[in-house]
User: Fold these one by one.
Assistant:
Number 1:
Amino acid sequence: MLPHNKGLQPCPQGHCPSRNSSKDTGIADRMVDEIWQQFYAESEGDEPQAASAIPSKCSLHYTYMMEPDSLPAELILTHPRQTLGNIQLDWTPQPGNYLDFEGQTYAVLERRHRYRLKSGRYRLHKIALYVQSAQRPTEKSLIAGRWVVGDASCCFNAHSELIRCAVNPEGPCESCRFYEPSHSQLQS
């Protein structure tokens, strides 16, 4: 039996028998084993890739949800345009996130996925991160579930993960002479 027991995901379309129901357990196990064997054959014996993939149990869709231990990423500086290097990440950076590389902090501006054709299918090969040198902001505000740079109560704040505001982009907000409470702050 192949190592698929950990973290098995249910079929999102609902076609698969439930692994928790006692009468369907044998059928579900056989279906999962068949999918694993097919995936293992397609991955050309690539054991780390096969072990990190979790197929859904749905024999109609054969969807594979990749759970990589680490993502290969290429860091590309936007200005001047140059490659900084390749790193392995254990998280998926979004634009607006900060990461440290060789003692320097960079802000992620853009993320692009690079795919390779392997065994007749396109598979994620690595992620290209377009970054710029930055300092981690000391002032942050939480708005609608996301962190923005600076004091979000100011009407000039951009409400962005990358830019503080137009009048004082470098900050700090605390002693800014242009500070004006936003209209929503005045009403409350």
Number 2:
Amino acid sequence: MSTLTIDQDPHDKPCCNCFGKRARYKSEKSLNGHSAIVCEKLEFPMPVAYAEDLPNALAKGSTIVVSGFIHPDCSRFAINLTSPNKSGDVDIPLHFNPRLDRHYIVRNSRKRGRWDEEETASAVKSNLERNKNFEVVVFVATEEFLISVNGVHFCGFSFRFPLNTCKRLEIEGLVDVSRVSFKNWSSYPEDNPERIPRIEFAKQDEEAVTSQILALPYTGNLPEGFEEGWQLEISGRIKLLPHSFYINLQDGAQLWPHPIIFLHLNPRFNTSAGENVFIRNARYGDQWGPEERTRMFPFTPGSPFTIAIRRGFDRLSIWVDGQLSG
């Protein structure tokens, strides 16, 4: 069974101080009588909603599922994997920190009392809301944590500590934790064919299949594969300030283990070299193949487009708005 995936690359969001810290300013007089302003960072511990040791050491496939309820007056909460260090303090290999008042989620780590660099980019917007239930899944992949929020993959977070240092799960903030489950999954997201819609093909004497606007990221199954002589069309509109988007034909809907990608289409706008680039590639196992690029860039910000992928005897051809593009 083949799978179609479409998504756009995430954009970075502004960073801010990590959860639980505020600045306090005070005036002090020095020995010579002059005043000085001193800035101190103070810790305001949030209420602990859950704190337990991990039942087993984390390994590939380890999965933590946290379910609960967000209080109406909760502005932020945190899910932490913690690790004791030699100084008697606690390191945090994974800090997952939804900022409900700012509508995004910070990921970070802390070592010997110092926070590392925050990550805020994500493939989708946060769907966590006050006064509602939530479910967060933390999955251990090969080199990173994969995290989903309310059934939707949200982000990855590369390991910054050895996995065997993660000893405890702590949840802080104004949330009620109703359940914490520790599981082992063979793939991520957990295989659930009913969640993935089927892409229906029109026969030669039928009108083309149309659909409403689809939310990204979109994944759909091609139930009969992608046979010779078939054509798949994707229509949409480029955003006014685009970064990039991609379309994959691949052999499964999972993110881990990484699926075989038979075709990867990736238009990139205003790259670091100041150019627009239309990239085609494929991936088998852990290796990408050599990139193919075209001089013609058929996409314009704010304009509609139609991409047609045609299956020939021994190749795929790519058409954009009726023009051959690869």
Number 3:
Amino acid sequence: MRVAKKNPDKYSLKDILLFASLSSEELRELELER
């Protein structure tokens, strides 16, 4: 079974870990790109 597929969250754990490694400025740039 893949729990991730049933997870309604927009981001996967991999994405969350990636975002956690980014600086605040990089996160702001990503938000602006959306």
